[in-house]
Amino acid sequence: MNNLTPAEMVLMRKAGQITRDALNYCETLVKPGISTKELDNLAKKFIIESGAIPSFLGYEGYPASICTSVNDMVVHGIPSEDVILKEGDIISIDLGVIYKGYNGDAARTFPVGKISAEKQRLIDVTKQCFFEGIKNLKVGHRLGEMSHAIQVYAESNGYSVVRELVGHGIGKKMHEPPEVPNYGKVTDGPLVTENACLAIEPMINMGRKEIWLLEDGWGVITRDGKPSAHYENTVHVTKDGIEILTL
Ligand code: MF3
Ligand code: CO
Q: What is the CATH code of the structural domain delimited by 6-244?
């Protein structure tokens, strides 16, 4: 696990704030009729005007600044002129920035206009999975205590947890050790250490946990075609508790 200095944390906080502000801006744009490509263009402009770099753009060849995953898409949806939001959809927007060499990474799932009660419950439970998780993220405890809490909360609400994709350490690089699964046993994983930064990101399916990778090599969809939601924040672990950097 990484161990960031107070001086580095100043920059991590700023990266987190820009990430949060860009996602809040995206939320104001989400309406029936907008394409996911327009969301990407506007988000990119916002990030650059904030003095940061969109970290996803060019990452392992990823062609956009944000991921836009609609309905049964779990994560990593590539923005497209051909994907136009419509009333009743849900869209997860995942967005990362680099500010003076430090990373912020976060995701939210938003409703498009009026959505069904069952989709709203999926969004709410996925967000709450994150908060149930961090209640169990403590210095000196196994990371698995958090992972397990996320899984129990999702499954007790009748949903399933994606296995192939996990959260991660974050700092000078977007992806650092350790892996941060959203499932597992309390005895799994490394001991949590002070001053680590982690991106915790439950990906929760309304139906079954199995996924497909699209032929574009990025988009991940549910095999059963049922909706999926994603909620992510970058956090800083301190002995006094968890500081959420992207909220
Ligand atoms: N936010 C994603 C993650 O947590 C990264 C998106 S993949 C990218 O792993 F290629 F688009 F950057
Ligand atoms: Co992430």
A: 3.90.230.10
